[in-house]
Amino acid sequence: xxxxxxxxxxxALRRYVDSYVGFDLRGLAAGVHCGPPSRVLTAVISxxxxxxxxxxxxxxxxxxxxGSVAGGLMCRSVAIHHDGRQQGVKxxxxxxxxxxxxxxxxxxxxxxxxxxxxxxxxLGVELADRLRAASxxxxxxxxxxxxxxxxxxxxxxxxxxxxxxxxxxxxxxxLVAARGCVQVGAVAAELxxxxxxxxERFRGELGLSPKTFARVLRFEHxxxxxxxxxxxxxxxxxxxxxxADQAHLxxxxxxxxxxxxTAWRRSEVLLETG
Length: 274
Fold this sequence. Notes:
The chain is an alpha+beta fold. About 45% of the residues lie in helices and about 20% in strands. The strands form 2 sheets. It has a 6-stranded antiparallel beta sheet with strand order 1-2-9-4-7-10. Strands 3-8-5-6 form a 4-stranded antiparallel beta sheet, with no helix packed on it. The longest helix has 18 residues, at about 135-155.
């Protein structure tokens, strides 16, 4: 059985935090979950045994144990090993949230997995302890609101939140709104920048170029469609998520998950577990 419950953060956090998700996996066969690339930076706090995570799927990447882990934007999936049970909370941060909560540009964390405590210090230890002590999801989400607001507040007098160029923030917003189906050159022109200048500034802030980020967004849309309870045929998934054809979807899917869509569906342990 796999259950999950989502929540929106407090209004004052919504520029920085996209969502919270609590998850509880029990009674599954041991396996490996493919954690895909997405538009957000992800932090996970385990409420049970440490997480066993590798930075790549099926590529020999070493498995590291984390009580809580934070990751930046990625161009490939991470492998989450489990023994059939796992309980935790996932926090999705926007790139602006990396500055507000971690005190650094998202680019510093791109393609990396680090202990959450390295970024939050004592606040990270308190966060994990209080989440594990809480007895309901509602109480855990309240703890997240309280401590993440504190993290934002302690940096409010610094330049770390204001450091993102407004043009980069707007480019990010437009790419997300279009789910990656927009020409980077057109976005740059609308902002009054050259494509090259936008690419340099965007990569310097997020760690990915706008073109690569747009590919991640299209893949994320396709992944959402493919993990629906009644998934569409792959050709329809490709069309709806903005791929030129199914072959284009297969190329991106293989790059981002190290598996073809069909092989991914056969091996993904958390599909259809309800």
